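Weekly puzzle thread! Below is a chain. First person to post its structure in token form gets bragging rights.
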Amino acid sequence: MPRQLYSQGNCLTNGWKRFFIFTFHGNQNLLFFLLELQEQCSFSWDWGPAFPTQGIWKDVRIEAYNIGHLSYFTFSPIYDNHAQEWNLEIESSFDVVSSKPVSGQVFVEIPKLQIQQTHSIELQPGKRIVELFVKINKNITVDTWWPHGHGNQTGYSMTILFKLDKDLKIKRTAKVYFRTVELIQEPIEGSPGLSFYFKINGFPIFLKGSNWIPADSFQDQVTSELLRLLLQSVVDANMNTLRVWGGGIYERGEFYELCDKLGIMVWQDFMFACALYPTDQGFMDSVTAEVAYQVRRLKSHPSIIIWSGNNENEAALMMNWYNIDFRQMGTYIKDYVKLYVKNIREVVLAEDKSRPYITSSPTNGAKSIAEGWLSANPYDTNFGDIHFYDYSSDCWDWNVFPKARFASEYGYQSWPSFSTLEKVSTKEDWFYKSRFSLHRQHHENGNNEMLLQAALHFKLPQSTDPLRAFKDTIYLSQVMQAQCVKTETEFYRRSRSEIVNGKGHTMGALYWQLNDIWQAPSWASLEYGGKWKMLHYFARHFFAPLLPVGFENQSVLFIYGVSDLLSDCNVTLTVRVHMWSSLEPLCTRATTPFMMKAGEAALLHQEPVPELLRRCGNCTRQSCVVSFYLSTDSKLSSSANYHFLSSLKEAVGLQKAHITVIISQQRDTFVFDLETSAVAPFVWLDVGSIPGRFSDNGFLMTEKTRTILFYPWKPTSKSALEQSFHVTSLTDIS
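Winning reply:
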């Protein structure tokens, strides 16, 4: 994500230098050390505060040894396509301080793969590397690791034991996962340019997910419980990918271990973002050490599927974000290639042959390489990935969005819930134009942009009670964000199998952003602490493995089916039309069953809207809404989706819904039985600060009753939920 110039914390590279020179009086060694290690977004971004921390925040230990020390231990499973067998490359680095060679044996055990090997070694004094090559018997079945939704995350326990002279024993255990990854960039029939998609274990997979930022401004506050909660929420919303963004930190080992276990693919940026960096020898040496360390530390994780050199620096340079004098541009281009190609890329290729590397995101990939590693137009939709933001155009109009190969950043802002803001504010802060609201908003004109986008389709809050107006605005901002990202994501998902006017074959949608670093308006779908915004509930639907998508083009309604299922299936599409004024459907039509191919998007139904309205009778664009769902022979059904025929501020017949609830408990889960008096758009159930999530939320309620489950994250009670419960729908906003 691009950094906005912000007076409370803008920090391009020269800003860091000024900061550190001022603080440390020009100590150049210390300067570059801190420049390398400081979390870049700690100086603020347009979603976070300026809290540049200093000091030690991880455990520190002193290790003494008089023979030798294992400096690092890493490994890579490699598949030999020619021999059709798996191999395991193991690398161990020793610091031998003994004045004489150290001899011994290495024992490698992977019991479930029937591997028990012994290797003799002799370590000379100094820094020494031990490389072991373990062949997996091709007659033994190796279960591969798969992303969430595509198979199991099978791993194998491995033990490495070094028995060395003088009874020195060093033991390491690890989990070994087997999987292959390929980044496919090849010509597409009917389209200029190249594809850009990933194959896991030889199978093309659409990447569905979001972008990860640091979970807190103060990393010592990020607990194991919080990491598990946030990452479980990823898979609970049918995502399979996170991009670890290059302006934050390389996450701790536990993060990647959880991604391995949950089947979350990781697009891993190196920590360079939205800035021009020095290329003097001292800095380049520090980058070499940084990259080598991180690759060795992380390459055994199957979840990591790609290394990316930086965030947006190719685009920043070639689109001249920093107003560089054209006479000096050649120098900056040379520095860019020196840092990301001749340094970082060379280190990655030397250390890890198991996954691809790209220099930047966004990038044109192979085309950028052909143009000397920087493309004249890094946002070319015929190549690579794109970042796309447009806050002024109507987000309900799918024509606004680029039909790209891969969308790795896009999104819209919203405010977090009142219960989240209440913890860090006081009564005088609770209105939309308060000092608090302006201070927490770090995106230039962000608060106004949210209102302008919402006003395109909804009536803005008019209450004279500041607190009521503030809460209504928070709700409406979340409705707007969820609907905007839904429309854009569905556009990308339905574009996976088609080429239209030379554009298409979109194979990835990673919205910005997953999580929050503090309590403030942002692009996140998870609030600070993990509470689900409306967008996250919507993501559970628009990333579902079986999804119907409706949209209009020149007054014709098209409905696509999108399948991430693992096999073909017969599906039936059911289309319903409701009047806003009635809970009974006006008309229903089901198609005959047809074959939906696995891993494809296909047109299922099209009908001119005027014809649809005539067929249903007594219906206009303003008085009716269309809903639809898919069902299969195996009783698997998609959730219902919908298409609005007009802006909801123009809806005719929409009545104020009186929604009641009866709460009951079934073991650790709570059941919310809802009943409504009228059709209710964007029904929002809230239990304040009680941690947990609902099975669905923010939904269109077109039936009189509906049952929703609540999954608490900590013990709670029926009475506590009843006291905290509040329900809002669109007609409550006034």
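Puzzle host: Confirmed. Bonus trivia for everyone else. The two ends are 35 Å apart (CA to CA).
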